[in-house]
UniProtKB/TrEMBL annotation, chain A:
Membrane topology of the entry: Multi-pass membrane protein
GO cellular component labels: plasma membrane
Organism: Reyranella soli
Annotated ranges, domain ABC transmembrane type-1: 100-301
GO biological process, one term: protein transport
Transmembrane domains' residue ranges: 38-58, 103-130, 142-165, 171-191, 234-258, 278-301
Residue ranges of coiled coil: none
Keywords (A to Z) from UniProt: Cell membrane, Membrane, Peptide transport, Protein transport, Transmembrane, Transmembrane helix, Transport
Localisation per UniProt entry: Cell membrane
Protein name as annotated: Peptide ABC transporter permease
Matching InterPro entries: BP-dependent_transpt_permease, MetI-like, MetI-like_sf, OppC_N
Family per record: Belongs to the binding-protein-dependent transport system permease family.
Automatic annotation (TrEMBL), chain B:
InterPro entries: AAA+_ATPase, ABC_Ni/Peptide_Import, ABC_transporter-like_ATP-bd, ABC_transporter-like_CS, Oligopep_ABC_C, P-loop_NTPase
Any single Gene Ontology cellular-component annotation: plasma membrane
Name of the protein: ABC transporter ATP-binding protein
Listed PANTHER family: DIPEPTIDE TRANSPORT ATP-BINDING PROTEIN DPPD, OLIGOPEPTIDE TRANSPORT ATP-BINDING PROTEIN APPD
Membership in a protein family: Belongs to the ABC transporter superfamily.
UniProtKB/TrEMBL annotation, chain C:
Family: Belongs to the ABC transporter superfamily.
Protein name (record): ABC transporter ATP-binding protein
Biological process, per Gene Ontology: peptide transport; transmembrane transport
PROSITE patterns documented for this protein: ABC_TRANSPORTER_1 (PS00211), ABC_TRANSPORTER_2 (PS50893)
Lipid bilayer topology: Peripheral membrane protein
Coiled coil: none
Subcellular location: Cell inner membrane
Organism the protein comes from: Reyranella soli
Keyword Nucleotide-binding listed: yes
Amino acid sequence: MDADFASSPVSVLATLQRPPAGVWRQAWHRFRRNRAGMIGLVLVTLVVLTAIIGPFVAPYDPNDNAAMLRGASNAAPSARNWLGTDRNGYDVLSRTIYGAPTALAVGLGAMLIASLIGVLVGGVAGYVGGFTDEALMRGAEFFMVVPVFVVILAVVRLFGIIVVGTPLERIPNFNLMTIILLLGLFSWPQIARMTRAEFLRLRHAEFVEAARCIGTTPREILFRHILPNALPPLIVLVALGIGGAILAEAMVSFLGFGDPKSISWGQILFFNYQSLKVAPWACLAPGTAIFVTVLGFNLLADGLTDAFNPRVRA
Amino acid sequence: MRSIPVSAPDPSPAKAGQPGPLLAVEGLKVHFHTRDGVVRAVDGVDFQVGTGQTLGIVGESGSGKTVASLTLLRLAPPPARIVAGRVVFEGENLLLQPDKRLAEIRGRRMAMIFQNPATSLNPILSVGQQLTEILRWHTGVSRQAALDRAAELLTLVGISDPAARLRQYPHELSGGMKQRVGIARALLCEPALLLADEPTTALDVTIQAQILDLLADLRQRLSMSMVLVTHDMGVVARMADRITVMYAGRVCETADADTIFNAPQHPYTRALLESVPRIDHSYSGARRVLPSIAGRPPDLLHAPPGCRFHDRCPEAAPECRRTMPREHLVAPGHSVSCLRRGSPGEETP
Amino acid sequence: MTALLEVRGLRKHYRAVRRGLRRLFARQQTGTVRAVDDVSFVLQAGQTLGLVGESGCGKTTTARSILDLVRADAGEVRLDGQDVRPVLAGTDRAAMLAVRRRMQYVFQDPYLSLNPRWTINEALREPLRVHAPQHQRDWGDRIATLLERVGLEPRNGVRYPHEFSGGQRQRVGIARALAVEPDVVLLDEPVSSLDISVRSQILNLLAALQDQLSVAYLYISHDLSSVRFISTHVAVMYLGRIVEIGAVDEIFARPRHHYTAALISAIPVPSPGAVDQRVHLRGEVPSAMNRPAGCPFHPRCAAALPICREQVPVLQPMGPNTQAACHNPA
C-alpha cells in the first residue's frame, strides 16, 4: 500500500465513520461483532439444521402413537422417550423435531409470497410514481388495517367446509398452505412500503443519474443499481417477518384452526395444553421451540439492522 | 513535554494594559480512542486570544481546528479525550473546572456560533423561546425582560420586525436569517469570547458577506474577542487580527494577519495561500496551473513521524522525517514550527 | 460557424401543487417556481463556460435539463446545430447513445455519484459496456489508461469508492465522464466538496485534461475564484435567468450588472486590509416562487430605476465580449 493510499481518510470524524472494505463484507464484519445478531444466527442455524437432519435422527415416526396403546401416554421423560409422550401417545421429541420443517415452511413460504408481492408493488409504486404510486399505496394501507387473525380464522374454517368432497381435499397440508398464503397476503404491505421508500431514494440517487447520463438502459439501472442497493433493509424486514409468520401460525394452530394433518408446534400446544399439569413436558418442548425460533429470527434481524447501517461504527 | 508558550503581544496598543490574554491554550492534546487505534486529532496546540482580538484558526478538514475549538468548552464529542494541556480563560483552567462551573461559563462568558444554522436551532421551539430560555437560565430575569432583551438583540443582528420574528419557528426563516438568530443567541449574555466555527460556510456568498460584516461590526461595538475557525483564507483575511495555521493536529504558524499573508514562513502556509485561485487574478493566456500541494493530509491514525507535513513539503530535509519541530519565535509575535526555519526539534520514535 | 453546444431559450418551471388525494384535503397552495427561465448561451470546443450564481439560481437545473436528467419545458439544446432534446427524450436508443456519448456529467459529490457496491473498475466498465460493447477485450487497457490519465494507479481499480479520499473519488468521477471521449463535460461543483489543498489538484487536472483533449466544459459553481481560474467565459445567473454573460476577464474586471458586481465583491480576498470597495447587498435572494416583477434583482439593487420595477431587462451587448441584462448598467 503506497503512502498516498493510506487505508483511512484523514478527518477524525470520517475515521470514525469509515466503513471497512467491501460493502457486503463490511456488513459481515459489523455483524460478526454484534453479539445479539450472532446469537440469532446460531439459533436460526440450529433450527434449520434440525429441520434438515431432524427427520433422519428422530427416534420415532411423528405419527407413531403406539405408546397410547401401551397406556403410556403422558409419560414422563425417560430413556425410551427422551422428552416424554403427550396425551395422544406421540413421542414429544420426535414431534417437536418434525415441527421445525413446518415452522420454517410457514416462515419462509409466507415471507416469500410477501416479498414477491411487496417488492413488485413497492417497486412499481416507487419507480413509476404519480397516480400508480398513490393507488398502490392506498391498496397496501387497506391490507394493513384488516385484522389478519380474524380473516385467517374465518377463511380456514370456510375452506374446511368448502373443500370437503372436492379433489382439493386430497392435497396434503391444504390447510397449512392456506395459512401460509394468507400470512403472505397480509404481510406484504410493510415490504412494499420499504421497497417504495428505497426506490424513491435511489431513483434520484446521484449514481443512478450518473448511469442515466451514460445511457444505461432503465432495465439495467433497475437491476444493477437500484435493486442491489435497496436489498439490505428488505432483508432485515424479511428476517423479522419470518419470525412473525411462525408465531402467527403457532397462534392460529393453538386456537385449533391449524392443519390437523401437519405437525406444527402450535398444534402440539393445542392438543396438550389441557394436560399441562399432568404432562408439562408436552407443552414445554414445542413452546421452547417456538420461543427459540422466533427469538433467533428477531435477533438475526436486529444484528442485520446494525450490520447494514453505515452509521454504526465498525 | 510541553511546548514553550509563545507570548503574543497584543496588537492593539489601547489594550496594552491588560494583565494577560483572555484565553490561553497551552499544550492541548485531544485524542480519539477508536477501535482502530488512537487518532491524535489535536496534538500539542498553543494559542492565545487577547481582549478584543480576533484569532483566526485556519486549516483543512482533519487539521484539528474544530476539535480544538470545541475543546475550549469541553464540547468535543466522545470518543475524544483531552489528554494534556490547559485552557486558561479569564484566569481559570477550564479543563479542571467542574461541569457545573463550565455550564455557567458556556453561553455566558464564552458563546458559540455553529456552522450549520439549520441544525443548530431547535426546530420545535420558536425563536423567542430559544433565546429567552438561555437568558433566563443564566440570569434569572423575568420572561418579559428576557423577551425584550431578545428583541433588542435581534435588532442588533439586523433582523427587522423582531417582535414578529420571536414568534416564528426556525423553518420559517431563511438560512442567513437563521444564522443571525444563532449569532443573537450567542450574544445574549454579552460573552467575552465568541467561538465561531465556520460561521458562513453553509451560506451563499452574498449572505456570507452580510454575516461577516455583522460579526465585524458587533465585535467592534461590543469589544468582544473572537475565535474564528475556518478553511477559507479570504474569510480570515477579512476578519482576523491574528492567525493560527493548523495542519494535522499541530500548529504550523501563528502571526498577525498581515504577516501570515505577506511574509508567511512555514512551507504549508505558503503552499496553502498559493494553491487557492484568486478572484483578482487573470488566468487567461498563460498555462493554467495552480501551485498545488501534492498528496493529501496524513491519516492521523498513523501520523508520520517527524514533521507531519514532511511528505508533502517542497523543502523537506532528511531530518524532517525524524524530528518533530516545536514552535519558536522568528520575530516578535510570529512563531513558526519548522526545522528549516530554525525551530528546535524533538526526536520522535 | 455552428457552435459545439448552443442552448436556446431553455425553460423549466416547477408548479408547486399537491398531487393526488392530498389535493382534496390540503388548502391549495399553488405557485410557479421559475427554476430556469429563458436561458441561452453558446459553448465552443475547448472553451469553458463558468455558470455561477447562488443556491437556487437555477444553475444546476440548467445543466440537468441539458442532459435531460430534468425534462425542460421549452428550449433547444443544439449539439453541432442539431437539437438533441427530442433525441434524448425519444425512443431511438442508438441516436440517444450517440448524443449521450458526446455530453457527460461530473457530479458534485463523487461519493454519491458512484454506486457504493461497485469497484472502481466496475464503475468505469459501465460506460464502456454501454457505448463500446463490441470491444470488450480492450476494456481493461482503456480503464487502466483512464485511471492513469486522471492520476490514479490502475491497480487501485479493484477498490470500492469508500476506500478512496474525496479527491481521488472525484478523479474517478472525471475518469468515468471521460471514458466515452465526450466533447462536452458538464461539471457540477466538482471541487466544492473537497479540501482546499486538494481542490487545486483537481482544478489543475481539469485544466490539463482540457488542454490535452480540447474538450469543452460547462463549469457550474458558486465559487467565483475557481470559475475565474478554469473558465474562458462566464455566465451569472440570478433567479433562473442569466443576468450577465461574456469573456471571463472582461466580466471580472468590469462587471456591468450590479448583481455580478456584488457577487464578485462579496468574495473575501485573501489579503488583509484589501481596500473595501464592496457592493453591499440588501436582503436575501427572494424565493423563485415569488419572483419580483420587472428586473428580478431590483429590490436588492442600489442602482434601481423606476423602470426596473416594471420591465424585465434583456441581455444587451455591454462591451466587446460581454452582455448584461440591466437597465442601468455600471
